[in-house]
Amino acid sequence: FGGDPNSVTIFGQSSGSQNSQQLLRSPLVEKEDLVTRAVCDSGTINHVSSLMNVDEVRENTLKVAKEVGCRGSSEEIRKCLQAVDGAAIMKAYADNKPIDMSKLPFAPVIEPKDAEDNVIPEDLSLRVSSKPWITSTANGEYILYLRMSKMVSPSWFENVRNHLTSYLESWIGQHTTDSAVKREGAQMLKNYYFQVMEPMENFTRDMAMLHADDGFIFPFLFNIEKQKNNGPTWAFRNEYKGELSGVSPWGEVTCVDDVAGHAETMNYYFNRRSTNPSVSPIETPEDRAVSKRLIKYLV
């Protein structure tokens, strides 16, 4: 687009934010000097949605491939998938998506060291970068999971509530095989997040809080602590509820809580009002003030 190839800023929100940070810290990208700086909104490298278990992702991939008629070696499956209609792949994806509040079937993984163009050869959350990085989280990250909860069967929540300890031990078990850690960790989570599990609305909100902390808040804190005293870093927590907060593009109010929602900071970096016809194309004075405050860190 006519820009300076020696000054490339990558932006991302949510999973795109996680991908942007992966690129900023990737040894391959660093070696090729492809990225100059990154801006990441509501998302950092984690082991929930940006670094999944390789075997689990492989198993899910083969399920989808089989459903659209692709079998054989990795290369045969790759060529077959490239020829399959995208709608068929999306249907197979939906049919095989885990019934869970936040579990994903696919996400980036740590690649084999001998893989060609290996972007993620290691856990990049443990690697630092000398390049400028802006990252943010919000006090309403949980709103994302409340939205997702509407796509999950009520019976799933009922089953998890009835077997909460097992669910939490299984969740912790994605990261450790130590039975004592799983048992003690599950009890700590129950004591902290699930003090009042009735009515179901309470339990659903508590689950949203748990998964928001697991997928966004803790990884945010971990990553900025790891990056400390390395490249220029500006990390902040967004608590501003603006005119676009909690409102869908078609005008539906999706959240009444007085919080900044997941990945809403991008509303202030870029004027997205043209995509939201339910509001005026002119920023409110308060929204504009937040935009000016954020943008000054970019220039």
CATH level-two architecture of the largest domain? 3-Layer(aba) Sandwich
Q: Would you identify the regions where 5 or more consecutive residues have pLDDT less than 50? A: none
The fourth-level CATH homologous superfamily of the largest domain is Alpha/Beta hydrolase fold, catalytic domain
How much beta, percentage-wise? 5-15%
Helix content percent band: 40-55%
CATH class type of the largest domain: Alpha Beta
- The neighbouring-strand order within the major sheet is 1-2-3-4
Total of DSSP H or I helical runs spanning 4+ residues = 12
Distance between the termini: 19 Å
CATH T-level fold name of the largest domain: Rossmann fold
Principal-axes shape call: globular
Gyration radius (Cα, Å) is 21 Å
What is the β-strand count?
Answer: 4
Average of the residue pLDDT scores: 92
GO molecular function, one term: carboxylic ester hydrolase activity
Enzyme class: hydrolase
Pfam families: COesterase
EC number: 3.1.1.-
What does this molecule look like?
The protein has 299 residues and is α/β, with parallel strands linked by helices. It folds into two domains: 9-52 and 107-295, Alpha/Beta hydrolase fold, catalytic domain (Rossmann fold); 53-106, no CATH class. The chain contains twelve helices and four strands. A four-stranded parallel β-sheet has the order 1-2-3-4, with helices on one face. Helix 6 packs antiparallel against helix 10 (200-227) and helix 8 (164-172) crosses helix 9 (179-193). The protein is globular and about 50 Å long. The protein starts with 8 loop residues before the first strand and ends with a helix.
